[in-house]
Design goal:
With about 500 residues, the protein is an alpha+beta fold. It folds into two domains: about 70 residues; about 375 residues, Porin (Beta Barrel). It contains seven helices and 22 strands. The strands form three sheets. A 16-stranded antiparallel β-barrel has the order 2-6-7-8-9-10-11-12-13-14-15-18-19-20-21-22. A two-stranded antiparallel sheet has the order 3-4. The N terminus is likely disordered.
């Protein structure tokens, strides 16, 4: 192969005669020996300069080649070596447990790589230029209900009637997470979640979907020990929630002891840290309490103003909690209270109130027990009270009303077997007092007016092979009891598959 500098030298030598002839052609007289000598010296100077340039280029190429070799060597030192098959790493008579250890290490490496990829992805930009992240869960859940239920895709109560089967993607969730500027010395953050579990659209193609529905929203300012917040979420009285992948649109154990109803709240939190490193948390908030679903004839399902809003006084709630260890998995206990005046017109008013206790207890490395309990009155707006705040009776031209007392709660045992597999078993009960319901029943009273007790027993297994994919199988036993009449039971079988982003 001809090297570049050799090629250039040959080119100059080949050009020398033509250059000389061209010079001769441009001159009218024959060249003198001195002129030829000057032309020769000029060409030799050009050749020398070209060779010098080529040598410098070759030196730089050699330096770059050495740098590339050095970088490759450093990269090989940083990156872990590719795992070798067990048969290449050890003799045939090695310990039999080593194969399983190598497999576990490979699985752990795959999981960490997927999580790293999640954190390194490009974030969405907002008009404010502060970080904004798009998140969500594309979820398909298939269901088989042995009896009639309220919402077939995510049931909470059952009645007499035939069962249903099908599958849906309406429980998919989309969200945005935002981090904002420092305000008054505090960091700011916000998030919002929506799903597609609103009223389905009309027409032949509308039965499989639903309208977009606002689920939860949060905006907060956080200082070292204090947090101010506005949110649409479950009451602060119930910080924990059961685990399920098939019950997303209505959270697990909803209307069975889980005070889940999403409502507007504005409040503050103070985290006091004693010398031992534990946390004592004070929380307080004002709340706009919604009405429960209304099934009285002639009353709108979504009234223009709730009974709490008609009282012109917001509800109040507070919680005192103790926490030690990890914020999401450590020991946590708390007590809370709630009060909200309600009014309908000028003749009927009552107060909603509750006392609560909540707990999360790590039993070991693998097991965790959590739950909540309450006792109160007019708790339909929080997701209890057998779907109602009060009972009523219409006789002739007279109406009579009474706020309904209620008690209930839920508990869950969680077993984590590694980072990918977990089992959950939970039970929840909402018990409106049947002796208060019966005097207000008439011939025309509907199912929900007659409902006094609702309980759910559930168990599920959840498997997450990667940071993005989720799979679950779940069984639910729903038991709905009437104040007058026999109970109704439903067996609910469900499977779910989700892609998280």
């Amino acid at each position: 192969m001809i090297r570049p500098k050799t090629f250039s030298s040959l080119a100059l030598l080949l050009l020398l005669p033509s250059f000389t002839i061209a010079q001769l052609a441009n001159n009218n007289s024959a060249p003198t020996p001195d002129a030829l000598q000057q032309q020769m010296e000029k060409l030799i100077s050009m050749l020398t300069q070209e060779e010098s340039t080529l040598k410098e280029s070759q030196r730089r190429i050699d330096e770059l080649r050495e740098q590339v070799i050095a970088l490759r060597a450093d990269l090989n030192k940083v990156q872990p070596a590719t795992p070798t098959a067990p048969s290449q790493l050890e003799p045939r008579d090695a310990a039999p447990g080593l194969d399983s250890q190598l497999i576990a290490l490979r699985e752990q490496q795959d999981l960490q790589q997927s999580e790293i990829a999640t954190h390194e992805q490009t974030k969405v930009e907002s008009a404010s230029r502060f970080p904004l992240k798009l998140t969500g869960l594309i979820l398909m859940n298939a269901f088989s209900n042995s009896s009639t239920v309220d919402v077939i895709q995510s049931p909470t109560v059952t009645g007499a009637g035939p069962g249903t089967e099908g599958f849906s993607l309406r429980q998919s969730v989309l969200g945005l997470d935002a981090r904002g500027p420092h305000v008054f010395g505090a960091t700011s953050a916000a998030d919002v979640r929506v799903d597609f579990f609103g009223t389905p659209g009309q027409g032949s193609y509308g039965s499989g979907g639903g309208t977009v529905r606002l689920r939860t929203a949060h905006a907060e300012l956080t200082w070292k020990a204090t947090r101010a917040f506005m949110e649409l979420d479950r009451p602060i009285l119930n910080p924990n929630t059961p685990t399920s992948l098939t019950a997303i649109a209505q959270p697990p154990l909803a209307w069975s002891g889980n005070l889940w109803n999403w409502m507007s709240q504005a409040g503050a939190e103070y985290d006091f840290i004693p010398a031992d490193g534990s946390h004592i948390v004070f929380q307080g908030a004002l709340a706009d309490i919604p009405d429960p679903p209304s099934f009285r004839p002639g009353v709108a399902v979504v009234p223009s103003a709730s009974l709490a809003e008609q009282s012109r006084r917001p509800g109040v709630e507070g919680r005192l909690g103790y926490r030690r260890g990890d914020k999401t998995a450590g020991l946590q206990v708390g007590v809370g209270g709630y009060f909200s005046p309600h009014r309908q017109g000028s003749d009927f008013s009552f107060n909603g109130w509750a006392g609560t206790v909540d707990f999360r207890i790590p039993l070991s490395k693998y097991f965790e027990l959590s739950g909540s309990a309450y006792r109160g009155s007019a708790l339909g707006g929080l997701g209890a009270g057998a779907f109602k705040d009060y009972v009523y009776r219409h006789t002739g031209t007279e109406d009579s009303y009474s706020a309904l007392d209620d008690a209930g709660g839920w508990t869950q045992l969680k077993a984590r077997l590694g980072e990918r597999l977990e089992f959950n078993a939970a039970y929840g009960l909402d018990n409106a007092f049947a002796n208060e319901v019966r005097p207000y029943l008439t011939v025309g009273s509907g199912f929900y007016q007659n409902l006094a007790r609702n309980s759910t027993l559930t168990s599920n297994v959840m498997y997450s092979p990667t940071a993005y994919t989720l799979f679950s199988a779940e069984y639910r036993r729903i038991d709905s009891s009437l104040a007058v009449g026999g109970p109704s039971k439903a067996n609910v079988y469900g499977v779910a598959a989700g892609y998280r982003f």
